[in-house]
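Reagents: none. Just compute today. Transposon Ty3-I Gag-Pol polyprotein.
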Amino acid sequence: FIRPSVSPWGALVLLVNKKDGSIRLCVDYRQLNKVTIKNKYPLPRIDDLMDQLVGACVFSKIDLRSGYHQIRVKFEDIPKTAFRTHYGHYEYLVMPFGVTNAPGVFIDYMNRIFQQYLDRFVVVFTDDILVYSKTREEHTENLRIVMQTLKDKQLYAKFSRCEFWLNSVSFFGTCDL
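Predicted 3D structure written out:
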């Protein structure tokens, strides 16, 4: 999802240790973000999302694997994602973490994909999807629909971080349902 670059842009890079011991490449996009027109896409209010869940008894959480990296950058914007390391000059072909509009672009994309299911049995919060249902039978069908939608859009979950068929769930960071 990166390629060599000859772009005049070139952000600095930091390597950061992750909780699991692996290393994350962090690109410092502060200079790009300063000249980017901000997309003011509103995040949903947690209390509004919680209201949708009244009466639900069965839950599944789906965590998308490196969510932003599953969205392609527009061709004309690829050079703006360039970064420099001591190994060379590269640019992203997918949406990198750290650019100012990434959260809004991602949540808008997810909301468009699941629009017909929002307020019925799906809650999207950044790269997390909550499927909720009143019965186990209903949940089987709801999960099938969500999984098929992800497959159709070629979006991939990180199954080690997904949880299925729960009677209660922690979502939105710290809220227990």
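The chain has four helices and eleven strands.
Action item: order primers for follow-up constructs.
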